[in-house]
Write a structure and sequence with these properties.
- Helices cover 30% and strands 22% of the residues.
- The chain has five helices and seven strands.
- A seven-stranded mixed β-sheet has the order 1-3-4-2-5-6-7, with helices on both faces.
- The chain has one domain: 3-Layer(aba) Sandwich (Rossmann fold).
- The structure holds guanosine-5'-diphosphate.
- Guanosine-5'-diphosphate is lined by residues 30, 32-38, 52-53, 78, 142-143, 145-146, 175-177.
Length: 195
């Protein structure tokens, strides 16, 4: 997709701050440092709109980015950093859980994992939790440029087998460095947001 407009709208700390434009929303989840901000910047063709390496464990907010007046990316706080893990749900944020469960404009969650390593227990917990509530999921395996191409199939298999990915859920390899996977991810997002 050609992104002509992208703006940061709000860091919401509660539901009363969510945008009321009625546009569809795509949420992004992943442990801290997985490459979420870099992916957002790559997808929207901006160098630095999403803040990279935002401090883990900081105030838990939902960051809304409006794209082409068509949809929102909703950046969820990174999980799995030190003491902020999915096993400590309260810390990760009841209101984030509530957003994921109750927001009717939420069309899909992009779950980022690092292609280089097997998904962590927090990644698996997140995937299981989203699956349990029947929230549409797309798994994106980041930092593919750091894995030699010849080993991509092996690493992809490791991601799928560790998460026990359901056949209906897409897994896309991605690199914020090379742009690998960008168009595939856009086309998948648009399938979920075009009515
Ligand atoms: P976040 O905490 O999930 O938002 O992660 P960031 O986007 O801040 O990325 C964490 C670190 O990984 C930064 O140093 C990025 O430059 C690096 N990084 C993110 N994505 C990629 C990628 O696709 N390839 C490479 N080589 N580095 C990446």
């Amino acid at each position: 997709m050609n992104v002509t407009q992208a703006e940061f709208v709000i860091s919401a700390v509660g539901p009363d701050q969510y945008p009321e434009d009625g546009l569809p929303e795509i949420a992004l989840a992943g442990r801290s440092n997985v490459g979420k901000s870099s992916l957002i910047n790559k997808m929207i063709q901006r160098k630095n709109l999403a803040r990279t390496s935002s401090q883990p464990g900081k105030t838990q907010t939902l960051n809304f980015y409006k794209i082409n007046e068509k949809l929102f990316f909703v950046d969820l706080p990174g999980y799995g950093y030190a003491k902020v893990s999915m096993s400590q749900r309260q810390q990760w944020g009841k209101f984030i859980e509530s957003y994921l469960l109750n927001r009717d404009r939420l069309r899909m969650v992009i779950l980022l994992v690092d292609l280089r390593h097997p998904p962590s227990r927090d990644d698996t917990a997140m995937y299981d939790w989203l699956s349990h509530y029947d929230i549409p999921i797309c798994i994106v395996a980041t930092k593919a440029d750091k894995v030699p191409r010849s080993r991509w199939p092996k690493h992809l298999k490791q991601v799928k087998e560790t998460l026990l990915v359901r056949g209906t859920d897409r897994v896309i390899m991605f690199s914020s460095e090379t742009g690998l996977g960008k168009e595939e991810l856009w086309s998948h997002i648009l399938q979920h947001t075009d009515d």
